[in-house]
Amino acid sequence: MRLGMPLNYRAGITDIADELVDFEQAGLDLVLVAELYTFDAVSQLGFIAGRTRRLGIASGVMQLYTRTPTLIATTAAGLDHVSSGRFTLGLGTSGPQVIEGFHGVPFDAPVARTREVIDVCRRVWRRERLVHQGTHYRIPLPADQGTGLGRPLKLINKPVRERIPITLAAIGPRNVALAAELAEGWQPAFFYPERSAAVWGESLARGAGRRDPSLGPLDVNVNALLAIGDDVTHLRRLARQELALYLGGMGAVGANFYNTLAARYGFGAAARTVQELYLAGRRDAAAEAVPEELVEGTCLIGPASWVAERLAAYREAGVSTLNVTPLARTHRDRLRLVERLRDLLAEPSATGDPR
Predict the structure, then answer these.
(1) What does DSSP say about strands 138-139 and 132-133: parallel, antiparallel, or unpaired?
(2) At what angle do helices 110-125 and 173-182 cross, to 10 degrees?
(3) pTM of the predicted model as reported, rounded to 2 decimal places
(4) pLDDT in tens, 246-284
């Protein structure tokens, strides 16, 4: 199981670059840079690429509505170049509140647009003369939509790799099926190992049935807050607050994908309560309304023996990349958490081995 870490999008990348070098030496495999309505991911990933040597870098995730498919492809090729082949293109649609509210772009046809973006990216990386006549993107632009002077072009530079790995952030049934069909990786939100098959199993199987074998096995790439110790369970309040934010505030009533996910996990009534309280401005009450089972099922905060059991559950559910946010006050303590997690992953109890 690879070990990754998403960067806090509130942090300045220049302030934590030195810390990433230490995490790299401690065995971290991957760092992910988010793109919400914050600093862009691309400039930060380029900075990280220049400061590290082995660490994989990934957009976690890059919003596809805010760039043309060709720009996404050339940006990914550029990041793969400056990192000597260490980049993973994490793609996602975000949601209408961000895409329409911050970028002023219509949020439409997310699944179909994602499919077309993937197709264009791979054509660009193969340095084909780009011709794409899709429903949402037409390249070159037809004469009746522009000057008529556009002609098929191919990427000037030779990419480090003609197949840069793509990870799709997806939680809806159709998007998850698309990830299993076309992407190298899939990044769900708030992954609950024991309930994942009931929620996503059918979609994953449907997509896998159409998957090109050359893509290899799907990399299941999940996030969790991390704290290991006999006196850390009070930190689950941070997981509870994060869940309340997403279930309550990341989307309008009837259009909150995370709230829908909680309902599919079996917490529909609680999810509605959380949203009502959060939107009424009662954020502490909203956090308290998050079910304890959902908190425990989606975090790694507890004694070492409990965390080891959870790691085994993640592995049993097919997780191959685990991205953790270590909860500790100092850099040294965060490093120790990553090292301790590495040790636990190497133990038989975390692999499902009964020995």
Answers:
(1) antiparallel
(2) 20
(3) 0.95
(4) 999 998 899 899 999 999 999 999 999 999 999 999 999
